Amino acid sequence: MLAKKQWACILDSLVELKTLLLVACLLCGWSFESWRPLQHGDERALKVRLRHAVNNFMMAVVSTLVSRGLALVTLLYALQWSQQQGVGLLAGSDLPVAFNWLAALLLIDIWQYGWHVMNHRWPFLWRFHVVHHADTTMDVTTGLRFHFVETALSTLIRVPVFILLGVQVEHLLMYELVVLPVVLFHHSNIRLPSSLDRVLRWVIVTPGMHWVHHSNIRAETNSNYSSLLSVWDRLFGSYRTRDDIAEVQLGVIGTEYTSLWRMLWLPLLGQPKQADADDSPAEKSG
Ligand SMILES: [Zn+2]
Ligand SMILES: [Zn+2]
C-alpha cells in the first residue's frame, strides 16, 4: 500500500504529464494541419487560424479558472473519500488489478457517451454545449472549446456517478491521459488516408467520425457521441459515417460566434437551431 505522500507525488506527476501531453498534441496537431489540411480556404489562413486558436485556448483557460478549479477539487475530494470508505461497484469487485483498471476505463468512457447524449437531448444542456458545436473552422483547438458552465456541470455530475461506480482518483487521471490525445486528434483538421481512418475507427473516435458530429445538419450532429472508444456508437446505434468528410458544413446555423466574449454569451442568446435535413448525404451503419 502506498503512503499518502507517495500518492500525492504520483498524482502531481500525472498532472504535469497531462500538461506536457497537451502541449505536445497541440504542436503536433498544428503541424499536421498545416501539412495535410482536410478543409482549406481563406478562413484557414494563418492569421485567422492563430486568432481562432487563441480564442479556443482562452475558452479552456476560462473554464479551468472559473469553474473547473472548484468543481474538480470537489470531485477529487469526493473520490478520495469514497476510496477510503471502499464504496462503489469497482471497490467491491475481486477483479485482478489490470481488469479493474480496464473496467474503470470502460465505465468512465460509457458515462462520457451518456453525458454527451444528454447534452444534445436536454435543451438546458444544449444551450451550453452548442458553444463547442458553433465552431465553423474546426481544428485541434476545438477540442478545448467548452463553455465553463458545461465543464463545471460535467465535473460535478461525476461526483455521485463515480462514487456509485467506485472510480478512483488514479483511474480518472489515467482516463484523462488516454482520452486527451484522442479528443484533440478527432477534432483536428488533418486529412488522413480514408483507409487509415476506417481502420482506426474500429477502436477509437477519428476525425472521420467526429466531423460528422460537428455537421450543421441535425441528423448528423445527433450521432457519433463517443469520446474515446467508438464501440459505444456502434453498440447503441448512433454510429454514422460520410465518405465526403471534407465537404461537411461545420457549425450550427445562426451561431457564427468566434470571439471569446460572444462564445461566453452565446448560451444567453436563445436556442440556436440546426438544419433539419434528414436527407443528408450521410450513410448510417450499425
Ligand atoms: Zn456534441
Ligand atoms: Zn467535438
Keywords:
binds zinc ion, 1% strand, two-stranded antiparallel ribbon, mainly alpha, disordered C terminus, globular, 286 residues
Describe the structure.
- Residues 277-286 have low confidence and may be disordered.
- The protein is an all-alpha fold and 286 residues long.
- It has one domain (11-284).
- The protein has a two-stranded antiparallel ribbon.
- α2 runs parallel beside α5, α3 packs across α4 and α3 packs across α6 (169-187).
- The protein starts with a helix and ends with a strand.
- 61% of the residues lie in helices and 1% in strands.
- One zinc ion (ZN) binds next to α3 and α4.
- One zinc ion binds next to loops.
Task: Give the SSE map.
Layout: H1 4-35, H2 46-85, H3 97-121, H4 123-133, H5 148-165, H6 169-187, H7 194-200, H8 207-213, H9 218-221, H10 231-236, E1 240-241, H11 260-265, E2 283-284
Antiparallel strand pairs: 1-2
The structure holds zinc ion (2 copies).
The site of one zinc ion has 4 residues, from loops.
Q: Structural class, please?
A: mainly alpha
| Count, helices | 11
Mean pLDDT over the full residue set: 87
Bound molecules: zinc ion
Low-confidence stretches: 277-286
The separation of the N and C termini measures: 45 Å
Number of strands: 2
For this entry, what is the oligomeric state of its chains?
Answer: single chain
In one word, what is the shape? Answer: globular
Strand order across the biggest sheet?
1-2
For the largest beta-sheet, the strand count, sense and barrel status come to: 2 strands, antiparallel
Order of helices and strands: HHHHHHHHHHEHE
Helical proportion, percent range: 55-70%
